[in-house]
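Audit log entry. Action: structure prediction of a protein-small molecule complex. Ligand: flavin-adenine dinucleotide. The ligand was supplied as SMILES and no pocket hint was given, so placement is left entirely to the predictor. Protonation state taken as written. Sequence taken verbatim from the request; no trimming, no tag removal. Recorded inputs:
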Amino acid sequence: MGLNQFVVEWPYPVNYDGINVIETDVLVVGGGISGSWAAIEAARRGAKVVVAEEMDVFSAGPAGCDHWHNAFDNPACKVTPDEAIETMERYVMERGIPFNPIGRYITYNESFKTLLELEKLGAKIRDTEDEFKGAPFRDEETKLLYAYTYDVKCTLRVWGQTFRQALYAELVRLRVPLYGRVLITSLLTEDGKIGGRVVGAVGVHTRTGEFYVFKSKATILCTGSFDGGLRIFGYLGYGFYSLHSPSMAGVGHNAAWRAGAEFLGIDARFRRGTGHGSMPSYATGNPSNTWYPCTIVDADGKEIPWIDPLTMKPVSSIEERVISDLRGYKALGGPPSWPETTPISHAFFIPSVAQDFLERVKRGEYKLPLYADLPGMPEHERRAIFGLMVAQEGKTWIVYYNLTRAGFDPNKDMLQSYWFGGRHLDPIANLFTSAHGGFIHDWDFRTNLEGLFVAGDACFYGLEHAGAAVSGRWAGAKAADYAKSVSLGKIDWDQVERERKRVYAPTAKTSGVDWRELNVAICTVMRTYVNDLSNEEMLKIALKWLDELERGEAEKVVARNPHELTRTLETLSALSNAKLITLYTLERVRRPNLKGFLTMILKSSGEVEFVVRPWRWWLLPPYAPTYRENYERHKPW
Ligand SMILES: Cc1cc2nc3c(=O)[nH]c(=O)nc-3n(C[C@H](O)[C@H](O)[C@H](O)COP(=O)(O)OP(=O)(O)OC[C@H]3O[C@@H](n4cnc5c(N)ncnc54)[C@H](O)[C@@H]3O)c2cc1C
């Protein structure tokens, strides 16, 4: 017996020569929230649909959801969708924070309706067991629970762990073929041309390594958000604690980019930090999102004051944190997309507050570490935070299970907080930049490429869970209708062969560079040179480095089994995406006074073209001049 006894054999039969060809009306790439909804809606309309998902569709994507956002269409909400979009636009103009007006407005009108659809599929959205009877965030008649602003009622607290099962059961009931563990690496275009009609996609099985060719009349890109943080800026140590799916690697984005889809907003101007720094997301106390409106105290039990970021006035009571009216707002306590934009939870937007706090710590006014004071919260708030929200958010049932099993008792224990006002007390976690790009789409969620639709966080500036569900449904309906009007396009088999050659190249080597090394190198370049402080010089150095990696290490990367091949292909995408982020950031730096929306497209010549779309392009011809008209005109039901 030698050392070989410890070598674990790859447990699946590997067949890099195998090719599977599948024909369908609608191909859904990515089986997370938007993908599942898109497939359900297209199948209900009689289209032949298949889903290709890199992971397992049953548990694809972040899975849970504790906040159902932007439900301005729910009867109890005090703000109408039109008032919400008006506020949002004003806020965006004032602060220059980008958003997706089409996706938002449609979501504002469809969010609650979609949640009711989800309930019909078996998801739990109401407090049917009366656990929170009498709580100020509960509507006693409907048993719905609200979050953030209890008087405005545009966000609901929900039992998100039931959502994926409900969607999965419906996909199975509709007999939608689910191609799990298939990583889509490239889109196919008519005649293999950049900018041509999308006629399908190809991918590789992450266990057997077999190749898949999907021929489709319509394709919907539902591959989630563009990974600015994990594989491009944060690899090793940070980011993977974030509960984000490791498959969020931007492979779908890269495939659509190479086909000629119009990209928006991928500059790395924002320093976001990574989730909760070096600790698992939501497993530490904090005053934001899932933990809102938790009181935070210092090591001596001294309360950290809350501040209203719009008025900069102190917020004195817990009630004021959750009732906008008490803070003097008629309707919204902040912009509708971030109704939680109250106190320190989102002092992210007011760095001065965070900075001031840290200065006070240095002066000895507050003593670290900080703690989330769950025992000090009213009972219904405490139980809503720990037990409802922590447990339903993303994959936080693991956090809930482990903390509870370890003896954590929210009635008497505080949980340490490593995070303050959008800043981490772990300084390294503050260093990461992020890019949040996505694809431009019209009011039908159609991209600039014929045959290609987009939904969810792959859309420009993302849409969150409710928006992913709404846009998935909408795009599914539109893609099904489109598929009825066209026949299958012609596959260019040379394009398929070129992609096969590219995909399997790393398997042909016996030694070389490991994907992790390449990934670390990409992150190092990006963290060093591409951030909110970047100037032309730095960005050009980054491009030089990335170019060298592309021509050097990327050519030498080796994959010894389908798992390594998957990670390698993701890393190669990350490298290509890193270049796109850098190019885009360079263009932004060169145009400091740019008004409008900067997009980039790969032209058929292979050149990258930058386009400036005017402010409110979504209400200019060929679209109608008002949000409502566009919504009514394009509504698929
Ligand atoms: C921990 C956590 C908690 C969250 N909580 C909330 C919340 O409470 N409320 C809220 O509104 N939002 C929440 N979000 C955000 C929300 O989950 C996302 O906005 C939503 O899931 C986006 O849906 P999507 O379909 O666009 O992407 P996803 O649900 O991420 O699905 C994308 C899918 O595409 C697959 N995929 C990617 N690339 C490929 C490829 N090349 N080939 C095949 N498959 C591919 C991925 O494996 C993934 O399953 C949370 C996110 C996280 C990470």
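Audit: result stored. The longest helix spans residues 562-590. The pocket of flavin-adenine dinucleotide is lined by residues 29-35, 52-55, 60-62, 65-67, 69, 183-184, 222-224, 243-245, 247, 251-252, 281, 393-394, 456-458, 464-466, 468 (CB under 6 Å).
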